[in-house]
Fold this protein.
Amino acid sequence: MQVQIGWENWVYLNSPAVVKEIIDKQSAITSSRAPMPVGNDIISGGMRFLFMGYTPTWRRLRAIVHKLLTPKVSELYRPSQEFEAKQLLFDLLTDNANQEDFYMHVRRYTTSVVLTSTYGRRVPKWESEDVREVYALMKEFSEGTAPGAFLADLIPPLAKIPVFLQWWRPRALRYQHRQVKIWTKYWNDLMVKMDTKSAPECFVKHFAETDYKKQEIGEVQAAFVAGTMIEAGSETTSSSLNSLILYLAANPIIQARAYEEIDKVVGSSTSPTFEHEGELPYIRALVKEILRIRPVTNIGTPHYTTADVTYKDFYIPKGTIVCIHTYALHMDATQYEAPYEFKPERYLDHPLKSGAYASHPDPYARDHFAFGGGRRICPGMHLAENSLFITLAKILWAFKIEPGLNVDGTQQVMDTSDDAYELGVNTLPKSFRARFVPRNGQREEVIRDEWQKAKVDGFFLGSTKVDISGMVAGA
């Protein structure tokens, strides 16, 4: 499907075969980003990994990032994810009396996981400086890059007028300076820890140990790459978890099937761990199904052609915005039976992670397109899938997820229609109420005991032991 939107020509890809041919097989000319003279060039200083064009610098960064986020390397962060999930269970048990605070606890969980994996910095509570800084930057960046926020991003030739006439530049530069200040602060803090041998194993430590400087990548650029990981990994995962909570509260029969699987495999005396993953296919199917029915973005992050593209009789000229139309792909009845229904069982015959299906030569073997495709496929997808699995498994082991109560004590009707989601490119559920009822007294006791023990023991990142504060134990 081809449309003209504002200054640009847009093409939407609605078929798995077309995505494979254009985005994957012709990725050398379909992996750039559309010009954003303000959002990328000024606000991001041309350094935001997500928005950078298909340049030699981006390709060098991509090679490093993908090497540091392989499925094997992502396993390094599993102890942190299990640790944070134990705190999440405790928080849901003890601090959701208003039936709304679970939103805050889920966001704390996802932010702590991504900050720990990126910088080795835990977020023990929502009311922390790290959380305020990160979400303030994300809010400011979202506002600055929203359609219409800056006219020059809608009409790129405006950026060619003399600098002193660019009325938007001072505001955009203020955004840039605040981002540079925050992201370089995190980077410099970890460099100090590395100098004193007190840095935990994390993405930035591993990045700093590469030859990035020899590849002409500066520290500010590297700090922006790490910042992009934080931005991309925190709110997206929390959105998927909140969608899971919404759909499960609306579907007690699906919860019951999950309980049956978990109880058979795990029992009541301990909560699930990653060691149980291979024996919990229905939990894994739930993760895939929420990413299908409510992907974080319905059109993906748009690609941009740097040369003319041909596919069969179709011609896409150079300088065209090309989108993987996730919504259309996921709601195709020829690929998914009853696509508008929440049916996790459709994925019981998909035992592999999303990365394996994305690289499969058969385009129709893909489980979903939530992580994009081609050379721009989300490098953090392995980390995200791990987070979603362990959190969901533990929550369903511990609780019945029930609708919130009205003032008169009756249960609210849980709406999972499009009306329950915010308007916009990203798929964010509107605020709703939910209760987390312990499945029995023994599990409530285990929740408390496991979190108490975790607080004392800390966790390991590789061979490095980290305490509850996120500091290397004994350093």
